[in-house]
Each structure stands twice: as structure tokens, then as C-alpha cells.
Amino acid sequence: MRHQIQAPSAVVMVRPHHFTPNPETAADNAFQLPRPEISADAFEARALREVDAVARTLMEHGVRVHVFDDLGRDTPDSVFPNNWFSTHHGGRIVMYPMAAPSRRGERRADIIELLKREYRVQEVVDYSGLEPDGLFLEGTGAMILDHLERVAYVGASQRADPIILERFCTHVGYEPMVFANRDPEGHAIYHTNVIMSIGTEFALLCAEIMTDTARRDEIVARLTHSGRDVIAISWQQVTEFAGNGMELTGTSGRLFACSARAAASYTPEQRARIEASATIVPIDVPTIELAGGSVRCMLAGIHLSRR
To answer: N or C end of the chain: which has fewer CB within 10 A?
Structure first.
């Protein structure tokens, strides 16, 4: 069915038991904030409750959630598995090279084995061997994939190397559409999934950060031509994680999972346009958001057929 091509009905999540904002990634992630002045145990407990709330809420809506525990202390960003692997129709899993050394330990054989056991997997493509060459492409953080039109939208950054992007797109049969971008401080946005989200019938996009107006117009036209309602979000809304949501398929139809903070930032018109296609499901994750990511970053979508 068309909606399940773009909006998966299953995800992988990781419960971090030693969560903290990662100092290695703070240099180019302007959304990160310091850990509050509370004990590590209390902070970690807050994060764990938020992850469990996301998993529970999605399951209540009929989304299949595969939950794994990360007990290690050396992977502070393990709650964001969408950066190290993605899945694709036709039975393909792709694993990615990560910029921060501390993030490379997030790759887990047990997650890949579960996917092979419960879904039809024909091939595992692993680009992680390119890390020593300083080449990085951080999965569906760096790329927003239009599975219907087979386009990879990518905001240029040091976490989205064009060489690997070209290899990925050639391998899976997608067209790359890269755009230059700058935040108000003049820096490239670290991941595309904080400024853009594509659903089956709508797309959220912060076009004002695109520095090439011709490319911006081309992307808006491409999304519009695909039949989607292109909903503009402001940079201020981006800082509230308004662009960091994910459309999923539940038992009652499509839903748009996002943080409570993101949902509160939508105008009544934006909310109505989103909900013309998918029910907004807001979940409060303020502790997780201190690490510079939100609900979308917590979900690795499964676009594989079940066995």
C-alpha cells in the first residue's frame, strides 16, 4: 500500500541506561545543551522514562516497536539508532560511517540479526569501513528519504559526504538532491532531519535556511509535484524540533510522531494541514532533546517485509 511505503509500521528503538549529551558531537550540533545540575543517575532515569514513553505510546497506536537495551557507558548517543542503519524495500539494510568515534560503537550485530530473523533481508551493505578515510554519512539523520519518489534530500554538512551519498544512491536507486544551508549564525545544520520531514501526503520544510534560491525552488517544486502539501516551518520552529517528526502507520492509519515541544510550536493552520493526512502524536522528551535530537532521531524505521 502507498502509505506503508513512506510510513513504516515498525521501528527499532534503543533504551540508553547511561544517557548524556555527547561532548564529541557538540561542536557542530547547535541544538545540544549541557546536562542540568542534577546527579547522573537522576538524569539517566529521566531519559529512560522518556524513551519508554515513546515506545509505549507508539505501541498503543499499533506500531510494532523492537526495543533494545544499551547498558554501555561509551555510547552516549545510542538512543538515536537511525543514524547508523537504515532499511529499504526489497530487503536491503544499509550501515553507515559515523563522524564521532564514540558513536561507532552503536552498531550492533544483534539488531541486524533480529531484522534478518523477523524480516526478509536480501543484502546488508556496510559503509562503515570508510570512517578511517574521514568519510561520513549518518543515515536518516543526514538524509531525508522520499521512498515514493526515490529521492534522497540532503542538507550539505560534514556528516553527509557526497562520495558516500553517491554510492548509496547508486546502490539503492535513489536520486540525490543536496542543498546548501546555513543557520542564523552562519553554520551548516548538522542533520537534515531537524529541518525537513516527508510524509505520504505532506512535507515539512524550513526553506529559509537554504542559501541557493534556485535549488530551494527546485526542491519545493519537486515535493509539490509528488502530490505533497509542502508546509513551511520557520527557523524558530526548527529550534523547537518542529521538523524532527516521523510519519508511521498504526492500526488506525497514519500518525505523525513528534515531541510535545514540536507539536506545541505548530500553528493551527500547520496542525490542520498535517492532520489532514496523519494524526499528530506528541510525546514529551525534554531530556532526550538536550542531546540535540528529538523523536525522529529515536526511531529507526523498518521498511522490510515481515517473514
So the answer is: N
DSSP string, 68-94: EEE--SS-TTTT-GGGTEEEETTTEEE
Specify the pLDDT at position 3.
52
Report which of 216, 194, 218 is spatially closest to residue 207, judged by C-alpha positions.
216
Burial of 69: CB neighbours in 10 Å, binned 0-12, 13-18, 19+:
exposed
Q: Which residues are 224's β-sheet partners? A: none
Report which secondary-structure segment, H or E, holds 153.
strand 151-155
pLDDT higher than threshold 60 for residue 22: yes
Q: What is the overall mean pLDDT for the chain? A: 96
The strand pairing partners of 254, in sequence order, are 249
- What is the model's pTM? 0.96
Q: How many CB atoms lie within 10 A of CB 41?
A: 9
**Long-range contacts: 110-118, Cβ < 8 Å, 24+?**
110/68, 111/12, 111/66, 111/68, 111/81, 111/85, 112/85, 114/66, 115/12, 115/87, 115/302, 115/304, 117/307, 118/66, 118/306, 118/307
In 3-state terms, what secondary structure has residue 306? Answer: strand
d(CA 154, CA 174): 12
The set of cell numbers assigned to 199 is 510524509
Q: Is 264 helix (H, G, I), strand (E, B) or coil?
A: helix
Measured distance CA(84)–CA(159) in Å, rounded: 12
Using one digit for the tens of pLDDT, what is the confidence trace for 49-104?
999 999 999 999 999 999 999 998 899 999 999 999 999 999 999 999 999 999 99
- Cα torsion 209, 263, 98, 161 to 10°: value is -30
